[in-house]
Amino acid sequence: MESTSKVSLRTAAAAARRALTLEERKRASERIVARLLALPELRPARTIVTYAAIREEADVEVAVAAWQERGKRILFPRVRGSELDLADVAEPRLLRIGYRGVPEPTGPRIDPSGGDAVLVPGTAFDPRGGRLGSGGGHYDRLLPRLPAHAVRIGIGFSCQLVPHVPREEHDALMHLVVTEGGVHRAPTP
Questions:
Q1: pLDDT digits 0-9 by tens, 3-24
Q2: Cβ neighbours of residue 23 under 8 Å, at least 6 residues apart?
Q3: Which of 8, 20, 41, 171 could form a disulfide with 167 if both were Cys (CB 3.0 to 4.6 A apart)?
Q4: 162: closest CA among 120, 129, 119, 134?
């Protein structure tokens, strides 16, 4: 059972994101993409796991195209029961609508152990790498299957950055959180 504080935070953060206009989300997404393309942590990455934006999420498709032009392999997630599988996608337009209306790849499953970086959408983030997702736990189960060196990057708008995200033992932490307002590097333990 999820804590009341997580439910309340999810509701408030989702409302703040929904309150952004389409134009505000577009401009903020452009700034997020610029920050992603400049991240030193992503320069050596050969394989990047990303996502296709739905509803009010930050759209990183322009970054995906730039990485593909640079020869990086791009993997997208697909829901399989309680897990996320990964698959190659030559172009985001080839994604098909899947679980909860999320665009998903249709190709063969790829072993996640080759991922160098992962972009993770969320409902709320904190500067220490805490992330609150949609409540399904799919990314919390995927992230431990990636190699230890894989950089975990939370993606959201500044209105989704909160002082503290309540965490449980199974909640995976981000190494960085990127918003239109900045890059927040989580303290190393």
A1: 678 889 989 999 999 999 999 9
A2: none
A3: 171
A4: 129
